[in-house]
Fold this protein.
Amino acid sequence: MITSGAYKQLPASLRKAVDRQLIRGENLYKSKGKLPEYKVAKLTDMESRAINMAKKGVGSYAPYVKNAASGLAKGVETLGKSTGRFEGQGYNNFMDPYEQAVIEAGQRDIQEQGARSLNAERGRGLSAAAFGRSGRAALEQERVAADTSQQAVDFGARMRSEGFGQAMDRAGNAYGQQMDRLYQAGIGQAGVGMDYATLGGDVQDMGQSDINFLSSIGGGVRDYNQSGLDATRATKYQNYMQPYQKLGFMGDIIGGVPSGSSSFASQPAPNPYTQTGGLMGSFGAGMNYYNS
């Protein structure tokens, strides 16, 4: 920087050059507008789409969870029905419809056999009566008649008991098969419910994957756009600061003391307010020395 004494020692031609530089610097300071503003890149279409998808995707799993809960509830209900106990339900549906006809036919056979036996006893009774033994013959005939009747009753009872047992076995087997089917159906319903739950998670994950993809690509594009805005501002800033740099460079030449401001090496963008204040301070100080 040129001191008051150094200024006075300069030749007249150089003092005029200094005067012109000071006036030029003052006018430049007054004429310069605001520094170029920082600008932020807008969201890309892909990022906007990702945001909309995220909004719409909130709760997208809810219908699947509802179906899953419904399926599980039905499955549990059906499984509960599969634990029933067989107590003869519906056995009459498995009774042999021809059982009574078979019993009646068998009893007729017994009766016919009994009748033949009774006739034989009667024949022997007639022979016995000839010899005075009719009382014993009558007892034998009564015994044959009673045996025949009892055999018919026993046959009917045995056939009915066997028929009932067989019907109970068939009904029990059918009931067990029904319980098995209910169990399998309950497992299937619960499985469908779990599938819905898994599907809901998959839908959510796939939507999140799309959102992440769009956000990533869109963010990359926005970063690229931002770098363009930053480069444009840096260029405007350099153009804005260039006159001050030239004045500073000329001041260094006149003062004979080179400073960092006379270097044109690429440096990070300085704070424009600090640098402008420093340059204007130098010009102001020069004018004070000149006025002194």
